[in-house]
Amino acid sequence: MSITEELVLLIEAQALQHGFQRAARVHVKLGALGHVAPEALRFCFDAAARGTPAEGACLDIHVVPGVGWCPNCQCGVALNERHAPCPRCGSGPLRLEAGDELQLTELEVE
User: Fold this and answer.
1) What is the pLDDT of residues 10-54, one digit of tens each?
2) What is the pLDDT, as a whole number, of residue 26?
3) Angle at the Cα of 53 (from 47 to 59), degrees rounded to 5?
4) Exposure of 50 by Cβ count < 10 A (0-12 exposed, 13-18 middle, 19+ buried)?
5) Please, are residues 76 and 69 in contact by the beta-carbon 8 Å criterion?
6) Rounded to whole angstroms, what are the CA distances from 60 to 2, 28, 31, 54, 93?
7) Residue 72 near residue 89 (C-beta atoms within 8 A)
8) Which of 1, 33, 90, 107 could join 99 via S-S bond, C-beta 3.0 to 4.6 A?
9) Three-class SS state of 77
């Protein structure tokens, strides 16, 4: 819930800064390896947005797959879980390159 409350606060700040009344659609990137389930984010967003410029906004969630950098193979590899070894060579640890983000990327406003 605290994550979605922060997201709503960010939208409120943007409304004040840019003078819009209501966000119609909120686009976010959500990492597949993060600890936030898209369904939970959506549920909590609706509750946290009540009485704010984000109330009633459609939450568009783009899930970003996990990507790690293998220093042994010198390339990026797909990751299905954190701290997994390289699927090519089995070495680790891999540096997490993508899949852990939660980012507001775009607001469609009225």
Assistant:
1) 999 999 999 999 999 999 999 999 889 999 999 999 999 999 999
2) 98
3) 55
4) exposed
5) yes
6) 19, 6, 14, 13, 33
7) yes
8) 33
9) strand
6: pLDDT confidence band, cut at 50, 70 and 90? very high
| Type of residue numbered 58 | C
Length in residues, the chain: 110
Q: What residue has token string 């899930």?
A: 63
When the pLDDT of each residue in the chain is averaged and rounded to a whole number, the result is 94
Percent of the chain with pLDDT over 90: 89
Q: Which amino acid, 62?
A: H
Both tokens assigned to 51? 């009485």
Residue with tokens 């983000």: 101
**Token digits of residue 66:** 């996990």
